[in-house]
Amino acid sequence: METAPPRRRRVGREQLLAAALRLFARDGIQTTSLQDIATEAGVTKAGLYYHYKTKDEIVLDVLRPSLDELPTVTRRAEAHRTRAARVDEVLGGIIDIALDENSGFAVLMKDPYLQQLLSQQESMRRWWDDATTLILGPAPDVEARIGLVMFINGLSGTSRDPVLAPLDDRSRRQQLLACGRRLLRAEQPTEA
Amino acid sequence: METAPPRRRRVGREQLLAAALRLFARDGIQTTSLQDIATEAGVTKAGLYYHYKTKDEIVLDVLRPSLDELPTVTRRAEAHRTRAARVDEVLGGIIDIALDENSGFAVLMKDPYLQQLLSQQESMRRWWDDATTLILGPAPDVEARIGLVMFINGLSGTSRDPVLAPLDDRSRRQQLLACGRRLLRAEQPTEA
DNA sequence: GTCTATACGCCGATAGAC
DNA sequence: GTCTATCGGCGTATAGAC
């Protein structure tokens, strides 16, 4: 891609993405039609199609900043020597992304449509394999693998649940991390 | 409802539901159109409409046997005197439903469309409140509530995950229940 | 009471004019 | 780069045959 058009654009992808995120957050992904996004951004439906070939492309582009952060999380975790420290780094990193109100991920992670879409993304599956190996080792036991799967599946539904509402950001992070540690039978790391 | 029609039907809801479940399980709920279900059952799309006014009605009717079982689970749990025993009864009951291959719930629980649909059902929300009180008491601490939310959200994604594939049904139940106990900080009950 | 024929308005997506 | 026009398919809905 990126045939590098030297000219600046009039509406630009940024405005389309901003409009899309606004509507996705308010109404959900599936409920928001391309017509809605186009109207909100001030173009026609077909005008959208110049920038994005499919609706999925729009959704994924809204998420790009968050998704790009995932490899950074695992890279940081690789530096730690103990398993407990790596677990905290990876789980904490994911939780941070999930709790960041300004990221598309936080807004959309719980969206049913997105979960389906992400599981089809090859790059996402590869990252997940890396993260699993990093946390559980090359030959993990079934118990730990199940715990990790439950944490990831549970996080998306939990991070925006009303039970977290009375807590501040630091407490939320702490509570969710504690859940992850319990599921993985991991101790609180002593280093760092 | 139940205006008790004395005559028997030619195709009957049972066959429609069987066809729907078959396609839902194979292709997912959203991918399956009413036209697909009608063709599979041997009627026209409008023929479906005589029995069900909306697609959601079909989905909910496929689930009815499973959903009807939930109150039974909480009723059984009320008989126990210790919290640990109640936790095991409720969590175990939900896990059993989620793992039963012959129930619509097991097939559809992980389906994104369904999770959205169920959260809109008033009866479902009421049951969830009951179950929460039963397990955590009338004034639960935040930690336990978060653990329970993560378990429920995580179960639907975990119960059909490939990591469970090598296990038999008894081991699957055991592993998932162990996850729930850890999240709720509940001991294995000594009674029963 | 059970089904078919037909249609409505909206969807995501495409072709081609300006 | 953005438009109008159009496509096939969707969920939903009514009229009326049997």
> What does the overall shape of chain A look like?
elongated
Count of domains of chain A = 2
Largest pleated sheet of chain A: none
What is the C-alpha radius of gyration of chain A, as a whole number of Å? Answer: 19 Å
Low-confidence stretches of chain A: 1-9
Please indicate the percent range of residues of chain A in DSSP E strands (runs of 2 or more): under 5%
List the helices and strands and how they pair.
2 copies of one chain form a homodimer.
Chain A: H1 12-27, H2 34-41, H3 45-51, H4 55-78, H5 83-99, H6 104-108, H7 112-119, H8 122-136, H9 142-158, H10 169-184
Chain B binds a DNA duplex (18 and 18 nucleotides) through helix 3.
Protein name (chains A, B): HTH tetR-type domain-containing protein
DNA-binding region (chains A, B): 33-52
Keywords (chains A, B): DNA-binding, Transcription, Transcription regulation
